[in-house]
Structure formats: C-alpha cells, structure tokens
Amino acid sequence: MIIPKTREEIELMRESALIVSKTLGMIASEIKPGVTTLYLDKLAEAFIRDHGAEPGFLGMYGFPNSLCVSPNAQVVHGIPNNVPLLEGDVISVDCGALKNGFYGDHAYSFEIGDVAPEVKKLLQVTKESLYVGIREFRLGNRVEDVGNAIQKYTEAHGYGVVRELVGHGLGTKMHEDPEMPNYGKRGRGKLFVEGMVVAIEPMINMGTKNIKQLKDGWTILTADGKPSAHFEHDVALVDGKPELLSTFAYVYKALGIESNEEAEFRKNPIVL
C-alpha cells in the first residue's frame, strides 16, 4: 500500500535526505587511491551521528555497516573492508540516515583517479537515466513509466538493466510500496499519487543484465565481471510533479563540478 506524506512529513524527509547528501559530499573529499572502504564507513557513521541522525543501514536486515560500498563489478550491497581503493576504480557509495522517524537513502558512483573512457561513459549514462526516470514520476503516470524510460535510455547504449534489484517507496520504513523497477512497459504498475515519496535508483551494467551474489549473503556482482554503475535520488510528488529531496550538490562542491541538472526538480536552490 502506498503511504502518501503530508507537506510537513515531506519536509522532515528532506532533512533526512540532506543528511545523506552531506555525508556523500564528505565522502567525496576522502575517496582516493589507497583509502579503504572501511575507513570511509567509519567516517560516514560518525558524520551521520554528529548531525543528529542514526545510520539507516547499520543493522538493517543484519547488514553490518553504515555504507554499502560497491567497487567495479560489484553492483550494490558491498560490505566495507580493508582492501585499498585503486587508481581507475569506480565505486558506488549508498548511504541511509534516520532522523525524526523518517529515512533518507541515496547513492552516487565515484571515479577514482583516471578512469577508462568506456567506464566513464557508463557512469554518465546511468546518471542521466536517473533524471530521465524522475521526469516520468508525475501525477497520472504509473510505476513502469519510470522504469520504461530508464530501460530505453540505457539499453540504447548497449547496457544491461538489472532486474532483480529495484528502487522503492520511502518513509518511516526504508522500504515501502511501491517497488520501482528500472525496466517495464508504459502504462503498467501502480498509479502515482500526490504526496508519495520514492527512491529511484538505476543499477546499470556495462555488459549483461545478469547478476550473482557472493557467499557473504550481501554483495551483488555482475555475472560477466564487467563494471556496474548506481545512482539514487529521493523524490517526492508535490503538486503533481517530482521534487528532489536529496541532492548531489555537496558531492559536486567537493569534486569541483558545476552542474544545473537538478534545477528542474527543485523549487528552491540548495544553500551550501
């Protein structure tokens, strides 16, 4: 059952989402060759707590850490460890925070040093597909309208769209209705309603759409060992249109990137 949020609840969710955004911005300043993902995880946990929130992932379903960090062929749900990051790696960092009873949950895929051009393109197209999907999150549309838009955009570049893992509704629980697949047929799925909040998160592979899981019970990898990319935003349906609750602005500030990609989905600019 979809649980619409009031305007007041959406503002509380924006607080939670922005704590995640700021955490990713802090992480962006720390990611470099030689750094371990466990180090990044400890920084993130402290940062989230210092901002009056609880790590959203820590202990959820038994997950042992505050970040999911998934390098290269890992798609999502990678467990932080002491293996140093290498020049040329790419890494998805997925983060959650719980504040005022509501969750924030979003992700960014980072380049570490000089990345191969074909991998850089994968990240670019995947991030573009996120906004392609968000544009379809509007009153009168249905769940698979979003997935269809993401699928068409990424498959046109020859990429594989993961089927087994999907976005989701968000609120007082990390995972609420509806599931938000990154594939589908237009006109199918649950109808969007005013006030609903979802996490839209394309998970796109350079090669096959097929995946496999490590024996740790968490880490998901591409079946062919080729790289994967993952980007995620929290989005509310306000006045019939998508409004971003999360932002990549803190990541971009840390990395020295200028972008206006979020402007169409935001009523007020982010004050950094």
Q: On the 0-100 scale, what is the average pLDDT?
A: 97
Beta fraction: 15-25%
- Count of helices? 5
pLDDT < 50 stretches = none
Strand order, sheet with most strands: 8-7-9-14-15
Describe the largest sheet.
5 strands, antiparallel
Amino-to-carboxy terminus distance: 36 Å
**How many DSSP E strands?**
15
Helix/strand class: alpha+beta
Taken in chain order, the helices and strands follow as: HHEEEEEHHEEEEEEEEEEH
Could you characterize what this model shows?
With 272 residues, the protein is α+β, with helices and mostly antiparallel strands. 28% of the residues lie in helices and 24% in strands. It has five helices and 15 strands. The chain has helices at 7-30, 37-50, 117-134, 143-155, 249-255; strands spanning 54-55, 67-71, 74-76, 90-99, 102-111, 160-161, 167-169, 176-180, 197-200, 203-205, 211-213, 220-222, 228-230, 233-238, 241-244. Strands 8-7-9-14-15 form a five-stranded antiparallel sheet. Strands 1, 2, 4 and 5 form a four-stranded antiparallel sheet that branches. It is globular, with a radius of gyration of 17 Å. 50% of the residues are buried.
